[in-house]
Design brief:
The protein is an alpha/beta fold and 153 residues long. It contains six helices and six strands; from the N terminus they run H-H-E-H-E-E-E-H-E-H-E-H.
Length: 153
């Protein structure tokens, strides 16, 4: 109901001498409604950050292990097509199916250098979209790999 009233009010303003004000109000409205609310989970390594997010989602989306696992900032958000997207340091985006084997190259502690960039996970969990909510998993603080601690901070 409020959207109809808002649209009608902007139309009335635009028709009169307040066209500039109406344009500013419309821009502000788009900005506010495009925003997402981010919940960032931060803590020491191997303390259950990824597990907490999985519990909130009621599904095992993020990999969980005893050793440090999360090497990149990982943002989980609503998308009707479930996927894992890696954004490299150069901005290049690469999509993967949301399967366990797709995660392997992005995990910490696999005897190789940590991956670079960020991960975005789209999941078909409607309440995330309804509330414009994104959950952000971070590498653990206090990790022996300083780069992960810096990412978390």
């Amino acid at each position: 109901m409020w959207k109809e009233e808002y649209t009608q009010a902007c139309s009335i303003l635009a028709a009169g001498r307040y066209a500039k004000l109406a344009k500013q109000a419309e821009g502000l409205h788009r900005w506010v409604n495009a925003r997402k609310f981010s919940v960032v989970v931060v803590g020491e390594f191997s303390r259950g950050k990824s597990r907490l997010i999985n519990e909130l989602l009621d599904r095992p989306i993020l990999p969980v292990r005893t050793l440090p696992t999360t090497a990149l900032r990982t943002t989980v958000t609503y998308h009707n097509k479930e996927m894992l997207v890696h954004v490299g340091p150069d901005g290049k985006k690469t999509g993967y199916p949301l399967k366990e084997q797709a995660w392997q190259q992005f995990l910490a502690g696999e005897g190789r250098a940590d991956p670079q960039g960020a991960l975005y996970v789209g999941v078909d969990i409607p309440w995330l979209g309804q509330h414009r909510l994104e959950l952000v998993d971070t590498p653990g603080t206090g990790d022996l790999v300083e780069r992960r601690t810096i990412l978390a901070e």
